[in-house]
Design goal:
One of its GO terms (molecular function) is ammonium channel activity. The chain is mainly alpha-helical. It is built from 17 helices and eight strands.
Length: 547
């Protein structure tokens, strides 16, 4: 269908125009970017069926409805599309079957790690979830999809990581679960949430669900090669969680992000209140990051990990405030810098947090990471978006990618200098050739992350339909009608269906009441009163539905 054949939507500020030959009512928003049109006279009668009855209006907006997505095979829609939930139900049944067949309790384990496991849970479900609520119209999706996808990733990552662990020992059997497996599952979920940040608002729940399914497999493969085979050091997940998750997500975003020339990015924006909620996520992550780095460390290492992580976070916090004001040259702090760059120290120090890098070294790593992260938001992210069309919603390259590479470099330098690091009982032992394994693990991680991200995104793109409307909750959640707002270029049948039937009915009745009052006899007081009441009712309904 050509653009000239698309049905127009005509909407206004205080009133609206209704075409009598229209199949049904359509709904608009006062939040639309309004274009001034010539004023229309109010006809005193409808005339022919094709005539239009115009209501009083200050301005009119004409918007073309986008074409529906390309037809997709019914079987694919039923299992992967928004029209059915078969995929969710089927995968959970499969999980129950796998756990029934291959898992049992490890009755010999007595690991006192639930305190750390609880902190990591808060980081994932509250920290990452609320950090992504900066989008003013995607708050439900940020927290809700984090809840859904992370829960699924935990149960799936436990099986995948234990499978690769058994494969490294060539000893397959029943998986005996203990609390460290729960933490490993949460680490897998953390990697996926980092990737989700690059895709936030641009993928459907179905797409993210199945992308997470594939990512966990490659995440486990990367740990198998880098950690279990090469024995690379990464107690805090700088290499295997942050770097992997960031570049997997960036690669997937490069494939899945729609062209802004074809899809509207107008709702990819923040608000004062959404940024406050995002700060909640920042605060939780900053406080609990030492637990993330120390969760699976030996008891003799946890103290030095905690000290190094806190010092690195302090350094990144102070320097991100300084860099935000200095580098932007505006004399003010930019909220996106403070929400994210303050956490860069926790990312960068992870791989060396159990090494004796000295307190000054930990502060230096965090400080450099904070400045580099700020610079990424100011210069690197816009440059990548312009040069290679890489659209990174949350800026995961700035928070996890580049600070992760700083941490990777720090791990190579520390091991190349034959630094001592604490053993299980607090004793130190030298590593003379460890730097080579660190370099190999870093290179393999980048290769697996980028290639698997591109591959997985292409698979998802072919199987699951993309949405026509971006960065809004209205397609996936029941939202209060007072929050239903449409942006220019975003009106389509899917969005119109998101408006409640009660609102549709009320708006339709109010419109036609005003039509009848407009074409009736306005010479008497009763007609004037009816017209004023109908106009007030319609204006109230429109404001409630669009503010």
């Amino acid at each position: 269908m050509s653009s000239s054949e698309r049905k127009p939507l005509i909407a206004g500020g205080a009133g609206a125009s209704i075409n009598s030959d229209r199949d049904g009512p359509v709904y608009s928003s006062q939040s639309l970017h309004q274009q001034q049109q010539p004023k229309q006279r109010h006809p005193h009668h409808l005339g022919s069926p094709s005539a239009s009855a115009y209501l009083s209006t200050k301005s009119l907006v004409r918007i073309s409805l986008p074409e529906p997505d390309k037809a997709i095979d019914d079987h694919t829609r039923r299992w992967f599309g928004r029209d059915g939930l078969g995929s969710f139900g089927a995968i959970q049944v499969a999980m129950i079957a796998l756990y029934a067949a291959f898992t049992d309790y490890d009755k010999t384990s007595d690991l006192p790690v639930y305190g750390f496991e609880k902190d990591v849970s808060i980081m994932i479900f509250v920290g990452f979830g609320f950090l992504m609520t900066f989008l003013k119209k995607f708050g439900y999706g940020a927290v809700g999809f984090t809840f859904l996808v992370s829960a699924f990733c935990i149960e799936w990552a436990i099986l995948v990581t234990r499978f690769f662990s058994q494969a490294s020992n060539n000893s397959f059997g029943t998986i005996l679960l203990n609390e460290s497996d729960l933490t490993n599952g949460q680490f897998g979920a953390a990697a996926v949430m980092i990737s989700f940040g690059a895709l936030l608002g641009k993928v459907s729940s179905d797409q993210m669900f199945w992308l997470a399914f594939l990512e966990i497999i490659f995440y486990g493969l990367n740990i198998f090669v880098g950690s279990l085979k090469l024995k690379a050091l990464d107690v805090g997940g700088t290499i295997f969680i942050h770097t992997f998750g960031a570049y997997f997500g960036l690669a997937a975003s490069w494939v899945l992000s729609p062209d802004p020339k074809k899809r509207s990015y107008v709702d990819n924006s923040n608000s004062y209140h959404s940024d406050i909620f995002s700060f909640i996520g920042t605060t939780f992550l900053w406080i609990l990051w030492p637990s993330f780095n120390a969760a699976l460390a030996a008891p003799g290492q946890q103290q030095i990990i905690t000290i190094n992580t806190v010092l690195s976070l302090v350094g990144s916090c102070v320097c991100s405030f300084y860099a935000s004001r200095l580098l932007r040259g505006e004399g003010r702090f930019e909220v996106v810098d403070i929400q994210n760059a303050t956490l860069a120290g926790g990312v960068a120090i992870g791989a060396v947090s159990n090494l004796c890098v000295s307190p000054a070294g930990a502060l230096a790593v965090g400080s450099v990471a904070g400045v580099v992260s700020c610079a990424g938001y100011i210069w690197t992210q816009p440059w990548l978006q312009k040069k290679i069309s890489l659209y990174d919603t949350c800026g995961v390259h700035n928070l996890h990618g580049m600070p992760g590479l700083i941490g990777c470099a720090a791990s190579v330098i520390a091991t190349a200098a034959q630094a001592n690091f604490a053993g299980p009982a607090g004793q130190a032992y030298p590593q003379s050739t460890q730097y080579a394994y660190q370099l190999a693990a870093i290179g393999i991680t980048l290769a697996i992350a980028i290639s698997s991200g591109i591959f997985s995104a292409h698979v998802i793109q072919r199987l699951i339909p993309s949405e026509r409307v971006l960065f809004t909750d209205e397609l996936y959640w029941t939202v209060p009608t007072s929050e239903v707002t449409f942006s220019k270029g975003d009106i389509n049948p899917n969005v119109r269906r998101a408006v409640s039937s009660r609102q549709k009915r009320a708006l339709t009745i109010a419109r036609w009441n005003l039509v009848r009052a407009s074409i009736g006899n306005k010479g008497n007081m009763l007609g004037i009163v009816k017209h004023a009441a109908a106009a007030k009712r319609l204006s109230s309904l429109r404001q409630n539905s669009n503010e």
